[in-house]
Give the backbone structure.
Amino acid sequence: MNDLAVLTDHEGHFDFDTESAGTATTLRVNKPGFYGSPDGESASTLSIQPTQAMPVTVRLYPEALITGSVTTRDGAPVPDVLITPQRSLYTDQGQQWIPMPPRQTNSRGEYRIVVPAGDYRLETSSGTRQTTSGQSILPQMYPSNNSSGNSGYLHVGSGQEEHADFHADPVPTFTIPIRLEPDSGRGYASLTAATETGAVFPVPLVRNGANSAIEMPSGSYVLTAMRMRSDGVEFAQASVTVSGPGSQGVTLNFVSVSAIPVQLVVDSQSTSDNVPLPTVAQLGLHLSPADQIPSTMRVAPYSGDSFRPTPGRYRLFSRGGGTWFIKSASYGSADLLQQEMLVAPGAGSSPIIVTVSNQTGSLSGTVNIGGTLQSAWVYLIPNFPSATPFYSVHSASNGSFSLNSLPPGSYRAIAFEVRSQVDYHSSAMLEPYASYLNTVTVTTGGKASVDIDGVPAAEMHP
């Protein structure tokens, strides 16, 4: 704050003279072992007006801790293994997995990772690691895809510690013959293998004339290959079980990854006079894999108005905002606002048909927290099928907010003092804040309003 610094006293109090500054000043607060926000920012930053009511309260959030070890099943430590936490966050474009800085196990096979509070999955080193005996240590995922009795996440609260142990027994590796069909003898193929726990690691391909082979640890895997050609991309996938010398080889049958065009259709009730039509890019369309955890890879439009997804299941998302919204979307018989999109191997070029409309409404209101109108994060959750999971806006310092160009329909509205990137369609997430939920209806051309009692930060992170 104007290059001044003070330490808080034993009760956390501090004092600055803001009136003499005459202008708005920035207050930055940090403390080792704490974050400045639930998102993991290093410090808490506030803009202070000279006439602002005092005192101000600044919240810091204790670091969370994930600890554990990597050992063989007989208890021998496995050093030098990278552990990467991936944090689950939700935005208006769906769920995202954000990799956090990895940590390496020490000589005792132990690791310690400081993270912001949240939901995580842990993954060990992204590739097989050769031991001095010629064996390999496979990467693992925690919680695993095939484990039962868990939510699929490791939840760690602010100031809390969670423990996750990995058992990594070295396994022997074997040479497996592999055939690439069709095989022109040219074209680079990139191979990966997915373990039964969901972890993925690269598989080097060794070519020797007409013969090809891969080195694989014993176990069962799903082998996936991508091959770049001058005329596009090819994809192949096969299951393989490696049990010892002489294990049956595997054949990868490549198919072209076809372009799936996006066809934009304007709703018949829309106003098109002097209103520019949206492009696929302006709608923020993308496909998110529904059968990959964590699904860090998104499929963005190719050449502006088409997708090239590999075979699998996908969900369609659209960025919120803009004059136009997606009223409906379909791929074949699938309603993409309610169903997943299934892309089969060798799928044709049937289009994704997206109907857009500019027949929208607006919403305005205020946020009151603890009897004071103030800034907060406002979330608007559609109660109807939508390509945008929610709409959000940060209210002004006087609590006022507005959201324009909203699709007509019923919404749930809720406000939080600090940003919260969670699944707002989860009843378990919203249940603790049921008393703060509001229902509001936006009509075409209408101007709805709602005044919201927001959730205090102390209640979000007690």
In short: The radius of gyration is 26 Å.
